Write a sequence for this structure.
């Protein structure tokens, strides 16, 4: 028993060959979230440094970086991105643009005006929370179908493949039903005042 | 087609351009339809935001401290084994022959191994990042009681050379304009000497608790440095090379050609600290 354990420990080490950018990108395009985690981890320090070395706080740097990674994900998964550079270069450029916009916004807004986007952001987050709560009530399949369609921008074919539907028509019908059900749940549980004002 | 289906068709891009125009006109005149449109719009935005929040929550769980790969981990285990062997050999030499331990032959073996890796790392990293300059970062891994073990270099990115992919150059209707970005000018003026190597030796003497001696690219540190990793940063300026030691969250000046043993003095200049941190 102990000898067997020792043999297991002494197994020759096979080094993990890191994936190339193209391999990672292909996986992301297929909707593999673990590949996105690899990208996030790999570039974390560089992107944090970009913002922090340019008057940004740690939290701001993290927000900008996460936003950039999400934008990258959305574009890749929806098939709207042809990668002509390294992934890090692409995300770097998004971070740069987002942070530049944020710096511009900070410069432009007076302290009074500063509160307005904050309030608007709070409102958006609150509505997202309501929708999230209601989607959760519909079940995992509806949640996936609606997210893949509206956020990830996947085609019905891709959704059918990922969720395991027989064909695109099934995916289309399911999406229609899920959406309708979501409308009903929200209308039933929240007033127009909660959601539309 | 009921109002739900009409709005649904609009958001699904299923309407022709004439139907779309008709629909938009209807929204203006029909308050009930407008209300349904606003409601659907909010729900779709909510779905998007909810998904975004889900992805961000997933990213928040990604362990950042363990950036090193499995191979790096094994590399460290290997380094530890080598260090242990060297510790035994060094102790034998130390107690049997001289007070000053010279591990030149053994460290050469270790250095040869690490330098090969280092060269590969630097090449692959610089290729990955597509940047024109990259700071060097030497991590000295010291095992307790040994005088010198090994050095490891790792290239990290600089922040001054983003390249926009052509296909996405119009991303969010912005072209890159770094002038607005307030990137520290010092980052551009300093360059890093990738070929230079600083040999580091640790000596423990009662007389010197936190001192150094640096000449001819050899840095001798006096004190108990074994508890943490430290780094030696070399900055190539226009007319000279500046050397700094990073140890336990502080930077220290290393003055060249110091034949005498001097106490380590921490860098207090905030700008310089920021710059060094940036280069790390």
């Amino acid at each position: 028993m102990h000898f067997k354990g020792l043999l297991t420990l002494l197994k020759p080490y096979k080094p993990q060959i890191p994936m190339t950018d193209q391999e990672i990108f292909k996986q992301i395009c297929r909707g593999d979230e673990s590949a996105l985690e690899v990208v996030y981890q790999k570039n974390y320090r560089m992107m944090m440094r970009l913002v922090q070395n340019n008057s940004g706080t740690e939290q701001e740097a993290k927000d900008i970086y996460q936003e950039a990674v999400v934008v990258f994900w959305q574009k890749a998964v929806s098939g709207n991105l042809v990668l002509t550079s390294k992934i890090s270069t692409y995300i770097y450029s998004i971070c740069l643009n987002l942070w530049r916009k944020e710096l511009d916004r900070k410069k432009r807004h007076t302290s009074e005006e500063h509160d307005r986007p904050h309030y608007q952001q709070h409102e958006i987050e609150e509505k997202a929370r309501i929708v999230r709560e209601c989607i959760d009530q519909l079940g995992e399949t509806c949640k996936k179908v609606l997210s893949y369609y509206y956020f990830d921008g996947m085609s019905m074919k891709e959704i059918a493949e990922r969720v395991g539907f027989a064909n695109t028509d099934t995916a289309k019908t399911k999406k229609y039903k899920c959406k309708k059900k979501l409308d009903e749940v929200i209308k039933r549980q929240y007033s127009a005042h909660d959601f539309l004002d | 087609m009921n109002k739900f289906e009409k709005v649904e068709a609009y958001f699904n891009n299923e309407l022709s351009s004439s139907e779309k125009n008709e629909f938009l006109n209807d929204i203006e005149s029909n308050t009930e339809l407008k209300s349904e449109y606003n409601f659907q719009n909010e729900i779709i935005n909510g779905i998007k935001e909810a998904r975004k929040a889900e992805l961000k929550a997933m990213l928040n769980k990604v362990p950042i401290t363990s950036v090193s790969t499995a191979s790096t981990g094994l590399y460290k285990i290997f380094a530890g084994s080598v260090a242990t062997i060297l510790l035994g050999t060094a102790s034998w030499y130390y107690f049997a022959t001289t007070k000053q331990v010279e591990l030149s032959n053994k460290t050469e073996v270790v250095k040869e191994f690490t330098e090969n890796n280092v060269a590969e790392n630097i090449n692959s990293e610089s290729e990955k990042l597509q940047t024109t300059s990259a700071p060097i970062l030497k991590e000295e891994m010291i095992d307790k009681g040994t005088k010198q073990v090994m050095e490891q270099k790792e290239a990290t990115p600089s922040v001054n050379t983003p390249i926009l992919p052509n296909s996405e150059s119009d991303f969010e209707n912005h072209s890159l304009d770094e002038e607005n970005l307030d990137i520290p000018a010092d980052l551009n003026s300093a360059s890093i000497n990738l070929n230079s190597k600083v040999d580091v030796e640790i000596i423990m003497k009662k007389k010197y608790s936190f001192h150094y001696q640096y000449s001819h690219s050899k840095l001798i540190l006096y004190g108990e440095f074994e508890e943490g990793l430290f780094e030696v940063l070399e900055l190539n300026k226009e007319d000279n090379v500046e050397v700094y030691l990073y140890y336990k969250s502080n930077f220290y000046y290393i003055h060249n050609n110091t034949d005498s043993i001097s106490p380590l003095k921490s860098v207090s200049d905030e700008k310089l600290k920021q710059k060094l941190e940036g280069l790390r």
In short: Chain A has a mean pLDDT of 84. The CA atoms of residues 29 and 79 of chain A lie 7 Å apart. The first helix of chain A runs from residue 2 to 9.
